[in-house]
Amino acid sequence: MIPAPFLLYLGSSADALGIKTSRGIAAFRRDDCVGEFRHDDCPQTLGLPRMSMAEAAAAGARTLVLGIAGAGGRLPADLIEDAAAALEAGMNVAAGLHERLRDQPRLAELASARGLQLFDVRDPPAHLSVGKGYPRAGRRLLTVGTDCSVGKMYATLALTRGLRERGVAADFRATGQTGILVAGAGVPVDAVVADFISGAIEALAPAREDGGWDLIEGQGSLFHPSFAGVSLGLLHGAQPEALVLCHEPGRPHMRGIPGRALPDLAECLARNLEAARLTSAEVRGVGICLNTSGIERDDALRLCAATEDRLGLPCTDPIALGVESIIDRLLCEASTPSTISSY
Length: 343
Prior knowledge:
By secondary structure, the protein is α/β, with parallel strands linked by helices. The chain has two domains: about 5-120, NAD(P)-binding Rossmann-like Domain (Rossmann fold), CATH 3.40.50.720; about 140-335, 3-Layer(aba) Sandwich (Rossmann fold). The chain has helices at about 20-30, 55-60, 75-90, 105-115, 150-165, 175-185, 195-205, 230-240, 265-275, 295-310, 325-335, and strands at about 5-10, 35-40, 65, 90-95, 120, 140-145, 170-175, 215, 240-245, 285-290, 315.
């Protein structure tokens, strides 16, 4: 376990999506956060006290979390400098980037000299097996998306909490750096060698006999040319009984690919269901989650209602409007498995 409390890193990021890991930790583990570190040119904030490395250490922070996410997962020079400053102030450092903290000689030497730790969250488990796709016991829901960073983790966590509030056994299964930092465990699926992706998810959500649900955090999108391979492996390994489609209305193009439009919701859900049927023949869609954080509440309600009418599935913003309608659909259809949505 990564020692808390945390200092969350924003650095010089000008991109709200680029700080999604720090934002996710602030949203779901706020009591474990003492503050945020950002440079003067950073326009972003999490609403936490702004602190220097020394101030955070004095306030009790034990770990600086480099909670940023950029294409390729690189560790640029400014991050290395800031991580070194955190170590010099007496804090551990955690990151979920593809480049490893431990592979930076300066950071490794500082951590060793000061008796501190470097946590590389994007390390996949050793000795993974290839997926087999054999039927296995248990109830599993997977979130899928029209694009990257559209709210799949938020939706999965909200659904997990909602099921537990109903007295249903439910476990969040993290597959990305933010989810792993929130949950304290998981598999960073985009760091798994391609042959082992589906097997890694079979291991993450193994057979269970208690009637409870595994809610598996989705990654990427089948429609995103950069990350569709990970999304497909997740679909096959999850063997989901149910899918929830996540989307951010108004997004102008696929993340990182100007000019490439997001898919239509109905087509996206249909293609995900088609792919999932390789290992889960009776999979069904049970809901749509929209990230309406950039929309006025009345407009969000109208959009959710229109989407629900068009697709015939409950539609909501899981954070602003709750997930009760989707859970109602999930539990109702789980008790009558012959009622399968055409989506």
